[in-house]
Amino acid sequence: MTITITAFERSPDGGKGLARDTRVRWALEEVGQAYEVRLVSFDAMKAPAHLALHPFGQIPTYEEGDLALFETGAIVFHIAERYPGLLPQDANARARAITWMFAAVNTVEPPILEFANAKLLEGDKPWAKERMPLVADRVRDRLKQLSARLGEADWLDGAFTAGDLMMVSVLLRLRSSGILDEFPNLAAYVARGEARPAYMRAFDAQLAVNTGKPPIS
Ligand code: GTB
Q1: From ligand 1's centre to the CA of 20, what distance in Å?
Q2: Rounded to two decimals, what is the model's pTM?
Q3: What's the Rg (C-alpha) of the chain?
Q4: Stretch 139-150: mean pLDDT, rounded?
Q5: ∠ CA 116-189-162 to the nearest 5 degrees?
Q6: What's the mean pLDDT in 166-189?
Q7: Predicted local distance difference test score (pLDDT) of residue 132
Q8: Of all atoms in ligand 1, which is nearest to the CA of residue 75?
Q9: Residue 5 in contact with residue 25, Cβ under 8 Å?
Q10: Span 59-67, mean pLDDT?
Q11: Whose CA is nearest to atom 23 of ligand 1?
């Protein structure tokens, strides 16, 4: 069955992996499923046809036969459940991997998003200078905890899982801030994720959309 996802026609970051279709592309690459991409403009995202797929008028969406999904956590979970490669067979290890997926979107991503929005949307406000350090410290608090748990391990719980895919995707957003480099084991963890061939294929495919050049790999 053909899988179709939606992505930005023009990503604000120029296609450098920060838009959330990257994590869906990455999951599909990890499990070896081909997919098609329907590119949408900001206007099209708010039009009825797209709103029928995504109530909040965002990307990415995921269509497979008569199934239509939104929310990257749910989409990656669906891919991981349907195709082998992203969740362990052992029931307990599987439950722990799913826990890490939730932790990524529910516990680690919120302070990172708050930080990104504070910079992007509120940077010019008179109170921004005072607030930024507080918001940055909330990110540091979370990363400190995550860093302590990861320790010297390659991945969060044994072999690479959908939990790592989601966590690395969430952490990537911090790269340009320098905060990630304050935690060398987390910076190395993210670099390990980015070095996976499946990630590189996903990244190249998204970049190609935005540069008009064919994917490298
Ligand atoms: N919780 C949802 C999910 O995980 O699927 C969030 C989806 C979401 O935020 N989608 C964004 C969107 O459609 C694109 S990824 N925004 C348009 C809108 O809301 O109108 C967020 C994003 C966009 C661009 C960059 N960038 O260029 O750096 C980074 C992140």
Answers
A1: 6
A2: 0.96
A3: 17
A4: 98
A5: 85
A6: 97
A7: 93
A8: 5
A9: yes
A10: 98
A11: 19
Domain ranges, ordered by start, for the chain? 3-85+198-211, 91-196
Answer whether 157 contacts ligand 1 (Cβ < 6 A).
no
Does residue 54 line the site of ligand 1, with CB under 6 A?
no
Residue 9, ligand 1, Cβ within 6 A: no
169 Cα–ligand 1 center, Å: 13
58 CB under 6 A from ligand 1? yes
Query: Which atom of ligand 1 is the closest one to the Cα of 46?
Result: 20
Confidence grade of residue 215 (pLDDT, cut at 50, 70, 90): confident
Residue whose CA lies nearest to ligand 1 atom number 13: 58
We find that the CATH architecture of domain 91-196 is: Up-down Bundle (1.20)
Look at domain 3-85+198-211 and name its CATH class.
Answer: alpha beta
Long-range contacts of 46-54 (CB under 8 A, 24+ apart): 50/6, 53/6, 54/6
22 in ligand 1 pocket by Cβ < 6 Å?
no
CA of 92 to the centre of ligand 1 (A): 32
